[in-house]
Amino acid sequence: MSTLKIRLYGDPALRKKAQPVSKITAEEKKLFENMAQAMYDAGGVGLAGPQVNIDKQLLVIDVGSGLFKLANPKILKAVCVKSGEEGCLSFPEVTVKIKRSEKIVVEALNHEGAKIRIEAEGLFARALQHEIDHLKGKLIIDRLNLVDKIKIRKKLREMKKWPK
What we know:
This protein is α+β, with helices and mostly antiparallel strands. It has helices at 26-42, 122-135, 146-161, and strands at residues 46-48, 58-61, 68-87, 95-109, 115-121. 29% of the residues lie in helices and 30% in strands. The radius of gyration is 15 Å and the shape is globular.
């Protein structure tokens, strides 16, 4: 069981821009492990630092092909925009349709501090883009058009009232 608490919509931590990591130390490695545990405990496929009130550009993703632990991820190339359903651990019970690139190339530091390049597509590409948005303080609702925001506004209002 993780000691990290996933922040829910309305928590100011979700809007903070995470800071780059200069190198991967024992502290970052421990954060990766705790973040992965929190993600698995919650049944998610990805988790970014701000979602657990960590002000570092760290994320973990596992869409079924193994765990990726990345720092300072940057999208270098994105092609083939496609609409798809998305949920978020910080927005329980909310799923929305969002347009994202179907194929992307990302550069990041891995959990050992080595610079890597990842070519991702499908769910993996979607999850990477979603978590990278979190590192910038951007949420799934920021990508919705006005009509879709209106459709979920009641749920969002209720979420803001939940205990933090």
